[in-house]
Amino acid sequence: MAFPTLTSLARACLRPAAVALSLWLAASAAPAMAQGQPLSPEQRKAVTDLIRETILKNPEIIQDALIELERRNTVAQADAQRNAVAAEKARITDPATSVIIGNPEGDITLVEFMDYNCGFCKRAMEDVTALSKADPKLRVVLKDFPILGPDSVEASRVAVAAKNQLQGPKYFEFHNKLMAVKGKVNAAKALEIAKEAGADLAQLKKDIEAPATKAAIADTVALGDRLGLTGTPAFIIGDEIVFGAVGQAALKAKIDSVRRCGKTDCAG
After folding, report:
1. pLDDT by residue (tens digit) across 122-168?
2. How far apart are CA 46 and CA 40, in angstroms?
3. Which terminus of the chain is more exposed, N or C, with fewer CB under 10 A?
4. Which residue has the higher pLDDT, 23 or 140?
């Protein structure tokens, strides 16, 4: 036989106290409200005293209220982000501001906003690579989201310009090598790796300065702001934004769910 804990007893006692408080407040305030009058000083003092006494005897009220507030904020934020994803769907996968790898006609799309100087992005690179190789129906959209300083912006400008010469698996190889660099990634390092991948450096340097390159990065940064992205990596699967390097298994589970029921959580 299981016995109730002190915590469960306290929470059980909280319910009738809260109900009684609500009924008392309603009964006390009703006559004044019916006549369009505010509570009298005596009524206000009685209400204040009762609330104080109830909270002191049941401090869990505050804890429960904070937990509920956090839950509501989380739900509201998730709803806002889903609405933002729906509104920005075309911009999120726009080829002009993205690199598409894997199956371009895949039935499920995994979008990653990343920064070449982000340690967690470097960790997530292995997960994205493994998923792309294991799932022939997966389309992966990479978006340069350089938020970690000038070096990141420089590296992203090289990467965005490099897609004019490097496509498909060749670009993904360049991307992975750049992401695997130890230490700071800047323009010099990105140019070095692009040259190793077969890019013509003279043309690449011209493309780096092209208005389209700068516009693509500015567009993605603005898009990230509208989506409420505050860090990298950030993934979009279906209508959900997934923050952080959550691991291959977690990403695969969401991809499988979208494929099965159209949502990242078929039980929800």
Report:
1. 999 999 999 999 999 999 999 999 999 999 999 999 999 999 999 88
2. 10
3. N
4. 140
Q: Determine the residue type at 15.
A: R
Please name the residue that has the structure tokens 């904020």: 73
Q: pTM of the full predicted structure?
A: 0.75
List all residues 6 or more positions away from 209 whose beta carbon is below 8 Å from its beta carbon: none
Residue pair 10/58 in contact by the 8 Å Cβ criterion: yes
Report the DSSP beta bridge partners of residue 100.
Answer: 141
Cis peptide before 95 (omega within 30 of 0): no
Cα of 204 vs its chain's centroid, Å: 32
Helix (H) or strand (E) holding 105: none
How far from 120 is each of 70, 177, 228, CA to CA, in Å? 26, 15, 19
User: Cα angle vertex 101, ends 96, 107, to 5°?
Assistant: 100
Q: What is the DSSP string of 226-242?
A: HHT--SS-EEEETTEEE
Please answer whether residues 223 and 91 qualify as being in contact, where contact means their C-beta atoms are separated by less than 8 angstroms. Answer: yes
Instruction: Give yes or no for a contact between 15 and 60, defined as CB atoms under 8 angstroms apart.
Output: no
Sheet with strand 138-144: strands edge to edge: 99-102, 138-144, 108-114, 234-237, 240-243
CB 99 within 8 A of CB 142: yes
Residue 9: which pLDDT band, with cuts at 50, 70 and 90?
Answer: very low
Mean pLDDT of 228-253: 96
How many other CB atoms are there within 10 angstroms of residue 148's CB atom?
A: 19
Indicate the pLDDT class of residue 13, thresholds 50, 70 and 90. Answer: very low
d(CA 132, CA 155): 23
* 52 contacts: CB under 8 Å, gap ≥ 6: none
